[in-house]
Specification:
The protein is α/β, with parallel strands linked by helices. It has 20 helices and 7 strands.
Length: 493
């Protein structure tokens, strides 16, 4: 009902058909509870005023909704202040609101219960002339029988009396046909008039006003109406899908995007959005299919291949990611981006030897890289290599202590040293191939030498484990001390 009433201002009062109506349209504000009255009494009084205005046959009735998009827009445009809408709008604010909504009159009232009687007051204002009519009526509740029913009857009686009293003055010049003389009025909703449906622009305006007010549920409904009014407009479908996403209604978002992609299968923006929705709802196979299909249909599009690779990388499908990155290289061998993606992935998995190869390929594909690019790459990859070196050194000391305390076997010690030697060799290759910024070459050379010494120390310890020769163990200690000295030197350079 609320969404229907939203369109009162947008539809009814802006058409020539409306101007042909003889009966004025009255905007009814909710009745307020006064002394002794409860909110339920106010609701009943509002409904009663509506009913009796309708029965006069001289007016149409529209409910006031302070969250109507037209009201919200009036606040944003400064035509109304938010204070006008807090609590009970003042008489001047009621007239302003009525003018903005295009009605002829505005009405408000109060209901009170005191000393065994129900009183209903009514205020009616003419928007054009600002003339005001006021009246009040009361009826006795009585003291016998069903008191709730008696109160309701008294309320109805008071409401009827005050409406007819005010209408006799305010609506005395309204002429009605014989068929409208009794009960010819109506509670206004858009369906009561033979008006054309709102156009797409009206739906979109209403929807975005709902969005700005945070009412996504009604915004979605208005966007659905807009889609139905213009089903081939893909931008509207995309916006509707995005609102579904905001409410985490991923199934509905996917359905809408699937329909949109069906209309325009080549629309990259829609397909990307659909893949993202599938990903968020956990349908990774469907998301992967979209990324790979886009790339397969556009084999020369490096960006599409990288997007597919990035998707697989994000979900730790490393083999699939590598495949997509290598296909990107086939499509554009002189583009450094796919090589860099591969290097990053290998670093992530501590495959530094493989990363070093791709770093070299990346630099050869980008021989004229500027100083900022060189510095950024050096910072990224040298940091990763230093982290591996620090890890190996920490591991080296820990393994020695564990072996001494007989917490690990000789074979376990040997195998871990072999792995650490391979790791530090990978770090050496990264330092060796990586183009260093101006001023960083001495530090880089020190790190290359340190990595070589650590690898040799691991090898000497492995020989010690094979032969039990103390000379091999001593040599390993000497090599490791020298490596630490070079690393400290690199930090100071």
């Amino acid at each position: 009902m609320r969404r229907l009433l939203v369109f009162i201002g947008l539809m009814i009062f802006t058409t020539s058909l409306c101007s042909a109506q003889k009966k004025p349209i009255i905007l009814l504000f909710p009745v307020q509870p006064g002394t002794g009255a409860a909110s339920a009494d106010a609701v009943e009084a509002t409904a009663a005023l509506k009913t009796y205005f309708r029965e006069t046959g001289k007016s149409e009735i529209a409910d006031f909704d302070k969250e109507s998009p037209l009201v919200l827009r009036a606040v944003r445009e400064g035509k109304l202040s938010e204070s006008d809408l807090v609590g009970v709008p003042a008489p001047e604010a009621r007239l302003s609101i009525g003018k903005i909504l295009g009605v002829d009159m505005v009405a408000a009232g109060d209901v009170g219960i005191k000393d065994g009687s129900v009183s209903v007051s009514l205020w009616l204002g003419d928007v054009a002339t600002t003339r005001i009519w006021k009246n009040a009526a009361s009826a006795s509740i009585g003291t016998s029988g069903d008191l709730d029913k008696a109160k309701s009857n008294a309320l109805q009686s008071a409401a009827s009396t005050v409406v007819y009293a005010v209408a006799a003055e305010a609506l005395k010049d309204v002429k009605v046909s014989g068929g409208d003389a009794s009960g010819g009025g109506a509670v206004v909703t858009p369906s009561d008039f033979a008006l054309p449906p709102p156009d797409v622009g009206t739906y979109l305006t209403t929807a975005e006003l709902y969005v700005r007010s945070g009412d996504l549920a009604n915004a979605i409904e208005s966007y659905r109406d807009a889609v139905n009014a213009d089903p081939t407009n893909l931008d509207i479908r995309l916006r509707l899908a995005q609102l579904y996403e905001k409410r985490r209604l991923f199934t509905q978002a996917a359905d809408e995007l699937e329909r949109a992609v069906g209309i325009d299968p080549s629309n990259q923006k829609l397909r990307d959005e659909l893949a993202s929705v599938y990903e968020q709802m956990g349908a990774l196979d469907k998301a992967a299919a979209i990324y790979t299909n886009i790339a397969d249909k556009n084999p020369s599009d490096v960006r599409a291949r990288l997007a597919a690779g990035d998707f697989f990388l994000k979900h730790k499908a490393y083999d699939d990611a590598e495949k997509q990155y290598r296909l990107a290289i086939e499509a554009a061998p002189t583009d450094p981006s796919p090589y860099e993606r591969l290097a990053d992935m290998f670093v992530l998995n501590e495959r530094l030897s493989d990363a070093a190869k791709e770093i070299g390929n990346m630099q050869r594909a980008d021989p004229n890289a500027d100083a900022n690019t060189i510095s950024a790459r050096y910072a990224k990859y040298s940091k990763a290599a230093v982290k591996v070196v620090d890890s190996v050194l920490s591991d080296y000391d820990k393994l020695a202590a564990q072996y001494s305390d007989k917490k690990i076997t000789r074979e376990e010690y040997y195998e871990q040293l072999r792995k650490d030697s391979a790791k530090v060799e990978g770090a050496r290759l990264v330092f060796e191939v990586l183009a260093a910024p101006v001023g960083s070459s001495p530090a880089n050379k020190s790190r290359v030498l340190a990595c070589s010494l650590i690898s040799q120390a691991c090898t000497s310890m492995m020989r010690y484990l094979e032969t039990n020769k103390d000379s091999e163990k001593l040599n390993a200690e000497i090599l490791l001390d020298e490596a630490r000295r070079h690393l400290a030197s690199a930090e100071g350079k």
